[in-house]
Design brief:
By secondary structure, the protein is α+β, with helices and mostly antiparallel strands. Strands 2-1-9-8-7 form a 5-stranded antiparallel β-sheet, sandwiched between helices. Strands 3-6 form a two-stranded antiparallel ribbon. α3 packs across α7 and α6 packs across α7. It is globular and about 55 Å long. The protein starts with a helix and ends with a helix.
């Protein structure tokens, strides 16, 4: 199970640091940002005013943070009665989208969690818990199932709804791995050259064709070998993930934080999915709302969140990193919770961030 999944689940259980000393990881991550500005993008808003920014308009791979948009579409459709969030789905349907070795153990960890919670009935589970698994554990299988259910076009249209002008196309993440297979041991440069020649539209169209085949072609999935994806291939795959900017995701988070554009019923569903940390009673003492999604690859680390504190103040933030080493990535994932707590619960630290990123 990857660090991000452990951190996300632990956020339900960890006590708040409100009123205590500033969390040490916050300073460590801020120091990394100031020393590695070319690999970082940051945007932080407080009460509708941007107070810290760095490369905020630079396109960066989103990794699983893009799943925030899918959670929004799920909430829209569930809140308006298009789908029933309590409808049960056979686990065998999710298995069609699962590709072993590509998600850091997220999907098996989610299944184990749901079994412990007794949420699996007759080998089926509710749509709501599938959506929560997409957010809390970042299950890619759940994500692709939901993309099919909700509709890729419907989900993509949220970029227009929320005014996200710098956002590349969404596509099924699991299926994209197949573009980087090397069954005939061809030279990597040849594979990379053929991929580089694809436009964004061609790239996404090819992936979606694989996605449609994957649901019914079990042989295709059995032939997949993660070990054929060298780090060089993985880097190209990572760089071509759906991308956006820190400023765009702060804009999205600001709209969600203010409960705009969607119905109250839809926001009720969104709270169940994206605001899972509010199930921690300690967080309820500090926040009215706290919605989070993060993501990672071997080279990328991203997070976007929105928070409304009990005093009514609102904070939205997005911080994206790329071209990380494995060692840097591992350390920084441990610091994410501390950074978020520092930004939302320690005004002096927020002032420090603002000054250092001016």
């Amino acid at each position: 199970m990857s660090w991000l999944k452990i951190i996300a689940l632990a956020a339900l259980l960890l006590p708040s640091l409100h009123g205590q000393a500033q969390p040490p990881g916050a300073d460590s991550l801020l120091q990394f940002i100031t020393q590695n500005k070319n690999r970082s993008a940051v945007c932080i808003a407080r009460n509708d005013t941007i107070i810290a920014r760095l490369n905020e308009n630079k396109l960066m791979p989103l990794a699983s943070t893009v799943k925030m948009l899918i959670a929004v579409e799920f909430a829209k459709q569930a809140g308006t009665g298009v789908i029933d969030e309590e409808a049960l789905v056979p686990l065998s349907e999710l298995d069609k989208y699962y590709l072993a070795g590509t998600d850091g153990g997220a999907h098996p960890a989610w299944l184990q969690y749901e079994k412990q919670k007794n949420n699996i009935k007759n080998d089926s589970i509710s749509l709501k818990n599938i959506a929560r698994g997409m957010i809390i554990f970042s299950s890619n299988a759940n994500t692709e199932y939901l993309l099919d259910l909700l509709g890729l076009d419907n989900t993509s249209s949220n970029t227009q709804l929320f005014g996200l002008k710098k956002h590349t196309a969404l596509y099924p993440i699991v299926s994209s791995f197949f573009l980087y297979q090397n069954p005939h041991k061809a030279k990597e440069d040849k594979i990379l050259k053929s991929i580089a020649a694809l436009t964004e539209e061609q790239y996404c169209k090819t992936i979606y064709q694989i996605h449609k085949a994957l649901k019914y072609d079990t042989v295709l999935k059995k032939k997949f070998r993660m070990e054929e994806m060298s780090m060089k291939l993985q880097k190209t795959w990572s760089d071509r993930l759906t991308a956006s900017t820190a400023a765009e995701y702060v804009q999205l988070c600001s709209i969600l934080n203010r409960r705009k554009f969607l119905t109250s019923d839809s926001y009720g569903v969104l709270a169940e999915v994206l605001e899972f940390v509010m199930e921690n009673p300690a967080n309820q003492k500090i926040y009215k709302h706290l919605g989070i999604k993060n993501g990672s690859t071997a080279f990328v680390l991203t997070e976007a969140f929105y928070a409304t504190l009990q005093d009514g103040s609102r904070i939205e933030a997005a911080y994206f990193f790329n071209n990380l080493t494995p060692e840097e990535n591992t350390r920084m994932q441990r610091w994410l919770n501390d950074l978020r707590r520092g930004i939302t619960q320690h005004p002096a630290f927020l002032t420090q961030v603002s000054k250092q990123l001016q």
